[in-house]
Amino acid sequence: MTDIPAVRPPLPPFTEESARAKVQAAEDAWNSRDPERVALAYTEDSVWRNRDRFLTGRAEIRAFLADKWARELDYRLRKELWAFTGNRISVRFEYEWHDAGGQWFRSHGNEQWEFADDGLMRRREASINDVPIAPGDRRIA
């Protein structure tokens, strides 16, 4: 397991610039499709709601992500800052992926993030909807 930095900048309270940097860092990490790398951005006891799933802790997050990217093939994500205040950031996002049968999907959603003082995310609330798309309708390469 990779060592976790004691501090993960940018740190709250967020400015527009630091909130945008945090969102871009999250997009870059998720696009790596590396569950270990992504899980390190969360506190050891981080609490998630992802659609209808409720997770607690980095180990559950890591396992969830490994399963996700085993099913959601060729996953590509785009995140956009929606709002920020203090130690919270809200984003809208969409990502595209296909299943093992070759059906492509675009998943739309929003997330609310809450950060600890050290810059690790301690809470994530995600609402997501999936729409089947034709391969020619993809927007994210």
UniProtKB/TrEMBL annotation:
InterPro entries in the record: DUF1348, NTF2-like_dom_sf
Entry superkingdom: Bacteria
Native species: Streptomyces nojiriensis
Signal peptide: none
Protein name, as recorded: Nuclear transport factor 2 family protein
